[in-house]
User: What shape does this take?
Amino acid sequence: MSDTSFVVMVKPVGSACNLSCSYCYYRSPDIDLPVSLSSVRNQQQPTMSGVTLERLIAEYLAASPDREISFIWHGGEPTLAGLEFYQQVVRLQERYLQKGRSCYNNLQTNGILLDDNWCSFLAKHNFGVGLSLDATPEIHDTYRRDRGGNGSYQASLQAVYRLQRHGIKPDLLCTVTADAAQRPLDAYRSLRDLQTGWIQFIPIVRRDLGGDLTPDSVTGEAYGEFLCRVFDEWLLHDFGVTGVQLFAETMLVAAGGEPSLCWMQASCGRALIVESDGDIYSCDHFVDSNHFLGFLGSSTTLDAALHHRDQRKFGNVKRDTLPQCCRICDVLLYCHGGCPKDRFPTSSNPDPDLNVLCTGLHAFFNHAETHLRRLLALRKRNLPDHTIRELMAKRF
Assistant: This one.
């Protein structure tokens, strides 16, 4: 058993997908990102075999020190594995789960294949669902098209409604592109009004072959402005009703806690990736030959991969390569340099260790901190959420 908690993200069909999103980092030959032979191969590879699946579940349950062990089913599009695959997942988890422990399954999906049979199964077995929905219909259909070039917004939206009818409130996963950043309130309100209760904003940061940001990428300045505008709307109107992942994590840190988001932590390396063929990698954003940790059941185990010297080095690089400006930064406690995938030089920022979103993250954390500290003080008085919103509004 491992001495520390970790997470396994499983790609049961590798990078195969029924959409062709323009910003997908597995399907972008025009940008300079490392993509392993395994990831390319897995776009066509069959679903994870029963033998590999059983080995994965048995090893993970044996290695995890947690009472609740989280499985994140990722892709590509993990529903392409078929409903029967996840029925087998549940049976295997029940077989190998030790008394007094439980499993939590989270399915990250575009929702297109989620019919009533799927939703009934997910509800029965308490699956969490993260569903990709890019803000407004226009923005979504610009980037998230199917193989025929058609927009997918309506199909994903119907999946949200279908999940809700089955008692599931999906987490809405929204990318922040250059376009979305120009319409922060439109983006936020369209997601909030679906009343799922939880939203995640994911910045699109991609490099072209020249090393600069692609046109669809959000700049640091634009991302910071987007977050600040959405934060103000959330704080005054939706605090206590709608959760926004980054705002919740920032409030947790302001209260003296430790963030659960890996990119906000001082070091990383606690989220392993298992591809459909059993290959294990350091992180979903570093699926390449330099971050290959072994083959599940043959050359290594999950516990051995987690404690591999290369994995420890990978996790500590985030902390050890912080530039001096980060080490003395007034929001270091919140940011810790951000995600390593976003730390690279551009024509306007030659420092290879400075996050390209730095200016925006700095602006947001500074903006949010003062308000969140006052909000936390009000919460200590056990005031109802609507009263807290009213009192916060008077100080804006």
User: Anything to note?
Assistant: The first strand starts at residue 7 and ends at 10. Residues 29-43 have pLDDT under 50 and may be disordered.
